[in-house]
Amino acid sequence: MYTATGTKEIDKDQFIAEFTPLVKRIAYHMMTRLPASVQVDDLIQAGMIGLMDAINRYEGSYGRQFESYAAQRIRGSILDELREADWLPRSIRKKMRRIEAAVNLLEQRNGCAPNELDLAKELDMSLDEYHETLQNARGAQLIYYEDFQQDDEEPFLDRLFIDSEGDPLNALLDENFRSQLIAAIDNLPPREKQMMGMHYEQEMNLREIGEVLGVSESRVCQLHTQAIARLRSRLRNL
Fold first, then answer.
1. Domain tally, the chain
2. How far is the CA of 38 from the CAs of 34, 142, 160, 161, in angstroms?
3. Calculated CA dihedral for residues 61, 65, 67, 72, nearest 10 degrees
4. Within 32-89, where are the H helices?
5. Directed axis angle between helix 127-136 and helix 90-110, to 10°?
6. Half-sphere exposure of 199 (CA within 13 A, CB side)
7. Is the separation of the CB atoms in 236 and 154 below 8 Å?
8. Which regions of the chain are under pLDDT 50?
9. Which domain CATH number covers 179?
10. What is the DSSP letter of 159?
11. Domain check: are 69 and 98 in the same one?
12. Collapsed DSSP state (helix, strand, coil) of residue 123
C-alpha cells in the first residue's frame, strides 16, 4: 500500500516483531553498565518506546540504514528513562572512589598495575569481600555527571578544558583526552583489555564474554568494574 505522496506504507506490527530482538540486545548490553537495582524489563520497555518512535519518524529506505537509526533511538529512549529514574546511587560512586584511590596509590608505589590481591589488601578486605565490592559497584561509568561539578576537590575533567569558557563535554572530544584514554585502555591487564574490547567493540554481553573467557557472568561484571576503576584512576592523573 502507498500513501498519497507515493511513499510505501510499512506494516508497523511486522517491524515491531522484526526489531524487538534488537531492543532486547541493546537493553541487555546496557545492563552491564548499570547497578543491580535496575530491571532489564524496564530497559526493554523504554527501548520499545524508542523503536516505535523510530518507526514513526523514519523517512528513508528500510534496511540496514533503518536498523542503525532505530538503534540510536532505542539507546536514547533507554538513557532518557534512566536519567529520569536517577538510576546511579551515590553509594556506587563512593565504592568506586575507594577502589580508584587504591589503584592510584599502588601504581604510584609499585610502578605497575596492581592485581586483585594487592587491591584487596590495600582496602583491608579479603579477596571475597573485594570481589563482592566490585559486584555491588556494578554500573560504574567512565564519566559521571558529578565529574563536571565543583565538589570538595577540583573535578578532573575541569583540567581538560581547552579554555575557561569551554563546555566540559568538549573535553570528551578533545584529541588529547581521546589519546590518553586509548593509552589507558592499552595498558590494562590483558584479560581486562580483552574483556573491554569484546564488550565495547564487539558489543558482546556478559554471558557471551564469560563463555569466551571461561568464567561466570558475575566474574565478567567484576572485571568490568575493576577495569573502569583503573581507567578513571589513570584519567584523573592526566
1. 2
2. 7, 18, 32, 33
3. -120
4. 40-57, 64-84
5. 130
6. 27
7. no
8. 1-8, 145, 148-169
9. 1.10.10.10
10. G
11. no
12. coil
Query: What are 190-211's pLDDT values in tens digits?
Result: 999 999 999 888 888 888 999 9
DSSP H or E segment with residue 222: helix 217-236
- Amino acid at residue number 122: E
Distance of CA 68 to the CA centre of its chain: 19
Residue pointed to by grid coordinates 500513501: 3
Judge if 59 and 108 occupy the same domain.
Answer: no
Q: Which three cell numbers stand for residue 1?
A: 500500500
SS3 content of the chain, % helix, strand, coil (to 5): 70, 0, 30
The pLDDT tens digits of the residues spanning 113-159 come to: 999 999 999 999 999 999 998 988 776 666 554 554 444 444 444 44
CB atoms under 10 Å from CB of 132, counted, come to: 14
The overall longest dimension of the chain from CA atoms, in Å, is: 72
Angle between helices 90-110 and 217-236 (to 10 degrees): 70
C-alpha grid cell, residue 112: 605497575
Give the single-character DSSP code of 8. B
* Nearest-angstrom CA–CA distance, 80 and 86: 10
The secondary structure of residue 11, as a DSSP letter, is: -
Residue 1 CA to residue 18 CA, distance in Å, equals 19
167 occurs within a structural domain: yes
